[in-house]
Design brief:
alpha/beta; 10 helices
Length: about 325
């Protein structure tokens, strides 16, 4: 069984507030409130585990949520060892407008990490990397962490022959790309930010993808919500079209794609199969209410619904 390590630097307590209709500047009444541990790394871990991958999760956690997160991961059969930070973990609010079918996210301030805690995490990560095939780096960096922390992690993984899957944005992404991660998954806005200009059509998107491939990244996924996604590897680019679903919430859709992509990498799947699995995972998760995620069974049952178009490059 392939094994992955997932780095969770900025976990959260997610509170989903559902409204029949959310009206700005007005008093709104919550129809339903759902609280659970969240964050991109946790979502990736749960989806990857459902695909049968062995998962080791590490990162930071507030002492007040340590037992809750450990219990949740134990129940999912996910190995974990976290560096505990005094205090509480950040709280993220997700406001679901059921009439509009939209989610507005309000993310809390994360930890402020000192050098000692960062050094502790590096030791734990070194231990995790002894017997894994893939390292997943996902999410924002908390205050105090070196902006090139992901780049340093990729260096460590490359030295050990471990493939890295990176889902980040801004300066941490730019610096990490210099170290040639194996795979990245920016969304279209993050890819446009990398390009320094809006990417408004397929030609502009594929041009940027080709540049990133030539710079040394082996696999690229560009997610575009209901418009599907681009997948690229070995000089080949395909576009996957999302299938129609009863939309409930987009929370965790991109993370679900990453979990499915990890499964594909671990099993040496073709680019086309990777595109089907990743896109199916994203679609199924958006059909789930609140913060629920897809399962491998659902993804595999629906992968043939994904239409694949080969791009001319």
């Amino acid at each position: 069984m392939a094994k992955i390590a997932v780095l969770m630097l900025n976990p959260s307590v997610d509170i989903m507030l559902e409204f029949d209709e959310f009206i700005k500047t007005k008093t709104n009444r919550v129809k339903e409130s759902i609280r659970h541990m969240g964050g991109k790394g946790l979502n990736v871990s749960l989806v990857a585990r459902s695909f049968g991958l062995s998962v080791c999760a590490t990162g930071f956690i507030g002492r007040d949520e340590e037992a809750e997160l450990a219990g949740m991961l134990k129940e999912a059969d996910i190995e974990n060892e976290f560096v505990v930070i005094e205090g509480v973990t950040r709280t993220n609010f997700k406001l679901l407008d059921k009439k509009e079918g939209s989610v507005t996210e309000v993310n809390g301030q994360g930890f402020n990490i000192n050098k000692q805690k960062q050094a502790e995490l590096e030791k734990v990560l070194d231990k995790c990397l002894r017997d894994v095939d893939i390292l997943v780096l996902t999410g924002s960096l908390p205050e105090g962490i070196d902006v090139d922390f992901y780049a340093k992690c990729i260096d460590k993984a490359n030295e050990k022959g471990i493939k890295t899957v990176l889902d980040a944005s801004g300066e941490p992404l730019k610096l990490a790309l210099l170290k040639k991660p194996y795979a990245i998954k920016p969304n279209i806005d993050e890819l446009s930010e990398l390009a320094g200009r809006p990417l408004n059509n397929d030609a502009q998107i594929t041009e940027m993808i080709k540049k990133l491939l030539s710079d040394g990244t082996s696999m690229i996924t560009v997610s575009m919500g209901e418009k599907g996604a681009f997948f690229a590897k070995d000089g080949k680019i395909v576009r996957a079209k999302a299938f129609d679903i009863n939309f409930k919430s987009a929370v965790g859709a991109g993370d679900s794609m990453v979990g499915a992509i990890c499964y594909s990498i671990a099993n040496g799947e073709t680019l086309e199969r990777t595109a089907r699995l990743g896109t199916s995972a994203g679609c199924i998760t958006t059909s789930k209410p609140a913060t629920n995620l897809c399962s491998a069974r659902e993804v595999l049952a629906n992968e043939e619904r994904v239409e694949i178009l080969e791009m001319v490059i």
